[in-house]
Amino acid sequence: MEFLKRKKNRREPLSAAPVTDTALAVQTGLPPVQPFSGVTERRLYEQLRANVPVIDSAIGKIRRLIGSFTVVCAQQNAQEKLNRFLSGVQVNAAQQGIDAFIGNYFEQLLTYGNAVGEIVPDENGIAALYNASLDDVEIEEPAPLVARVSRKMPDGKLIPCPFPELILLSALNPPPGSARGVSLLRGLPFVSEVLLKIYRTTGINWERMGNVRFAVTCKDDNPAFAGERARRMAEQWKQAMREGPVSDFVAVGDVSIKAIGADNQILDSEVPVRQMLEQMIAKLGVPPFLMGLSWSSTERMSSQQADILTSELEAYRRLLEPVILRIASLWLTMEGCDPVCSVEWNDITLQDEVDHANARLMNARAEEIERNWEEET
Fold first, then answer.
1. Would the pTM of this model clear 0.85, i.e. be above it?
2. N or C: which end of the chain has fewer CB within 10 A?
3. CA angle, residues 6, 9, 10, in degrees to nearest 5
4. What tens digit of pLDDT does each residue of 228-245 get?
5. 38, 184 Cβ separation under 8 angstroms
6. Distances (CA, A) of 175 to 69, 134, 179
7. CA dist 278 to 47, 56, 158, Å?
C-alpha cells in the first residue's frame, strides 16, 4: 500500500480486501461473465420507494432500528482517539461520523442488494469516508473468489480501482457463485403495481363521482326552436352552477335534472389494499404496528413480531460489522496501534421495559429457587 509506505513505525494493515490469490482454484466455478450494470433494475427500486410510502418508510425504520455501536480496541490509550475519529470523520460532502456512513451504506444495501464505499486517506491518515453510487461503478467477477470494483468512464470503459484494499463492498443474500446481492425489494414490483393501480383508480372515481356532474334534459314539443332554447338553458345553467353566490335556475317546460353517476357505487378497496400491504410487510419484515397499520393483533402476536424483527436486525448487523472493523482496523494500523478491535452494538429495545424487568425478576426468582433446592438436597 503506497500511502502507508511513507509512515514510519507503522504496522502493515490487515488484509481485508477480497481474495485475489490466483493459486486458489475453484473446481465448480464457471468462467468469468461480462459485468451487468443493472441500471434499469435500480431505477425500478427507486421508483418503488418514491411512489409507495410504505416501502420507503419501512426501509427508513429498519435503518434507524439497527441502532448505534461502539468500537472497542485492544489498547486503552488509543480508545479515546478512536472514538473521536469515528464520531468526527467526514462522510461524503455534508455529513460527519461513521454512523452516517453506515446508515447510507446499509440503506443502499437494502435498496439495491449491493453497497460500495471507499476509505479516503491522506498524509495524516484517513481523511473521509465516501458512499459510492452504484451508477458510477461496476462490480466485476474476474474469478470465482474475486470481486472487483471498477470505475465507469464517460466512454464506457471500466478502470479497476488502483487501491482495492480501500474499497468496501457488501452483498445482500447473493446467489451462489455471484457477488451481486438481491435487493430487499425483489418481488415487490408486481404487488406495488397492483396497489398503485387501485389508488389511481380510486382517485379517478372520486374525481368523477365526487365532483358531481348533472344531465339537464328538456322535452320540447316545438322542435323548431329547440336549438335556441337549449343554448339559453345551457347559459342559465352555467350561471346557476358558477362558483360564488348561490343563484336559482328557472326553466319553462318539461325539464329534468339528474346527477351523473349518482346511482353507481365505488368499489370497496379496503380488502385488496390490505392484501397487497400484507405482501409488502411480509417481504420487508417489519411488523404492521410499526408502520401505523391498525390491523387486529393480540398482545402476544405483537410481542412475537417484535422478537422476529430483532433477529432480522441482528442478521443485518452481522453484515455491517466487517465494514466497521475494516475502517477501525485500518485507522489503528495507520496510527501504529494494535489493529485488533471489536464492535459492541447497543441493545435493541422493541419490547416494553416493564416486560424486560418482569422477565429479569422471574429469572432471578427461578435461580433463587434452584439454588435453595440444591442446598437442601
1. no
2. C
3. 70
4. 777 777 777 777 777 666
5. no
6. 29, 19, 8
7. 20, 15, 42
